[in-house]
Amino acid sequence: DLxxxxxxxPGRLGLDRMLLPHRVKVGGAEGIDDHLAAVxxxxxxxxxxxGPARANRKPVLQILDGDANTVAFAKLGVNALTRELVxxxxxxxxxxxxxCDLKLVQVPRLLHAGNWNGxxxxxxxxxxxxxxxxxxxxxxxxxxxxxxADVCGTSRFPLGESDYAARLRLRLKALTDRGExxxxxxxTAGETLLDRYGSTTMTFGAWHGDWAPWNMRETPDxxxxxxxxxxxxxxxxxFDAAHYRLQDDIVTxxxxxxxxxxxxxxxxxxxxxxxxxxxxxxxxxxxxxxxxLAARYMGDQAERAGAALGALGRWLLPTLLRHIAxxxxxxxxxxxxxx
Length: 339
What we know:
Layout: H1 32-40, E1 45-49, E2 60-64, E3 70-76, H2 80-99, E4 105-106, E5 110-116, E6 119-125, H3 138-150, E7 155-158, H4 163-177, H5 183-196, E8 201-207, E9 216-218, E10 223-225, E11 232-236, H6 239-252, H7 257-266, H8 268-272, H9 279-299, H10 316-335
Parallel strand pairs: 4-10
Antiparallel strand pairs: 1-2, 2-3, 3-6, 5-6, 7-8, 8-11, 9-10
InterPro entries: Kinase-like_dom_sf
Organism: Glycomyces artemisiae
Protein name: Phosphotransferase family enzyme
């Protein structure tokens, strides 16, 4: 989002004519350009980016000064989900930029958090996302992921005793209670994994939540990282590495999603080793990540929003269930004396 320049919206920037299924109705209210100029203390020019159909789609405004330099970005919450995400990103940006001593990672600074015409608004500084990237190899990215995972402290617990397991069970139950399609299947898969690996001791830390090639830019000094709306603490260590691998395979390399999921699970020890995840913890980490991602897509109602990967029953859930069934068969064979 932060490095996309889109054509200006036609007419006065009231954002009431944007091509969203949820229109922002403003009437004769102050335009967003005037509001941002008052917030920032100088005249602004705006470029509007509206991404592809997905549940978290929201207006992202690129803010330029009179010399056409990008000085900031703004996001608006336009429905219940995006308002929640803008609030979450506001809190995460403030926390990471003001209170955390990051050396390898650079996040935007929070310039403003407020309200415009009934919609929550956040404004952040611009990172140098338009500069030529400096590809210094995967080891540097892994080090940056470890720094972010450690930023709020880490802990080690048996999975079954962790806050994460309790939170995930509640999320899965809430989806089932809400009657989401395939929620009972996802709940069964998730609880099976939580029970199976309940005694496995794991490390828990923070994750960006959507660390992907399009949400970062490497520079000679640091990795610039933005879109912090999914930042979370107390998750299995290595989630960011698993997410990066899956998204890079599906989106960047155009791999078949089912094949990408199978590859993630099969290669989990190698993918997570640079994060310091022990081989015995790699498979449960990858499988829990997949359940967590499925719960996110389902909770966001991504399929109804038209997201390309929103139809979980076509790729993620069947693959996850087959792997759990194979595990059950393998375990049964190891206890009945057969080979």
